[in-house]
From TrEMBL:
Catalytic center residues: 51
Gene: truA
Domain Pseudouridine synthase I TruA alpha/beta, first and last residues per copy: 4-101, 142-244
UniProt-recorded name of the protein: tRNA pseudouridine synthase A
Keywords linked to the UniProt accession: Isomerase, tRNA processing
Catalytic class of the enzyme: isomerase
Length: 283
């Protein structure tokens, strides 16, 4: 299944005793749809765990279905029992050896940030906020240091359970759409709080408090204590995992068109590095 959700009302994805997580809501909804006795759930495995306040546009989960139903029924039927800020977007059958997390070849996140003198209201919880002007050239220059395979210990939360801090950053795009900034990240995998910690460094550099070279210095130090604070979760979206094409797992949902995007004709690749792109800062 592909799931979309707003994260501000939940304590993240992973199940917790208080039941206030996306996984808890989904597993109970599945159980109600298939008619399991009260108290039982349908266990699920997700492609990427999200923290409290983080949203998802295409969170992929797999589970062993206890009953046979038409594909469209898994979508509509499960959604009947989900709150309005969580919804199944698609469903399909997969081979028995498919694994939502282990079969993924990469993952994508986007971070939406509003730059303005006043804090957000309508979009509160759905975007980050900065009141100091950001410089796209400084941030793009800093982002180049992140491309490739690196030890990302400087951007790893102390509670991270990953076996290795070494990940491959494949793409970073920084675009401005009106008063909003959109940061896109694609990597083989991400450490706990990695995107939010990278955002803390990028915003520090973009606002002029540090030079672009600061990013490479942090990366080389491999020390989280030397890096800027973790950026707030509001505005972080899990766009979804990437699988081998032959699996035919959908890579997008309708919500991808809702999130602001830079027009294709305005996007320009960075000539110095093809993996980092963006649009000029607003004049």
């Amino acid at each position: 299944m592909g799931i979309a959700y707003r994260g501000q009302n939940y304590h993240g994805w992973q199940s917790q005793p208080d039941g206030r997580t996306v996984q808890d809501k989904l597993e109970r909804a599945l159980a109600e749809f298939v008619g399991l006795p009260r108290g039982e759930v349908v266990p699920t495995v997700c492609a990427g765990r999200t923290d409290a306040g983080v949203h998802a546009l295409n969170q992929v989960v797999h589970f062993d279905a206890p009953v046979a139903r038409e594909i469209f029924s898994w979508v509509r039927g499960t959604n009947r029992f989900l709150p309005e800020d969580i919804a199944v977007q698609w469903a399909q059958n997969v081979e028995p050896d498919f694994h939502a997390r282990n079969s993924a070849r990469g993952r994508q996140y986007a971070f939406l940030v509003r730059e303005s003198a006043a804090r957000p209201a309508i979009e509160a919880g759905l975007c980050g906020w900065v009141f100091r002007p950001l410089d796209i050239d400084r941030m793009r220059q800093a982002a180049r240091a992140l491309i490739g395979e690196h030890d990302f210990s400087s951007f790893r939360a102390s509670a991270c359970q990953a076996l290795s801090p070494v990940k491959e950053m494949r793409r970073i795009e920084i675009n401005r759409i009106g008063d909003y900034w959109r940061f896109d990240f694609e990597a083989s995998a991400f450490l706990h709080h990695m995107v939010r910690n990278l955002m803390g460094a990028l915003i520090t550099i973009g606002s002029g408090n540090q030079s672009p070279e600061y990013m490479a210095e942090l990366l080389a130090e491999r020390n989280r204590e030397l890096a800027p604070p973790t950026f707030p979760a509001a505005g972080l979206y899990f766009l979804g995992p990437i699988y081998d094409p032959h699996l035919a797992v959908p890579r997008r949902t309708a919500a991808h068109d809702w999130l602001p995007r830079v027009p294709v004709e305005l996007a320009r690749p960075d000539e110095a590095h093809p993996y980092v792109s963006g649009t000029p800062a607003k004049q």
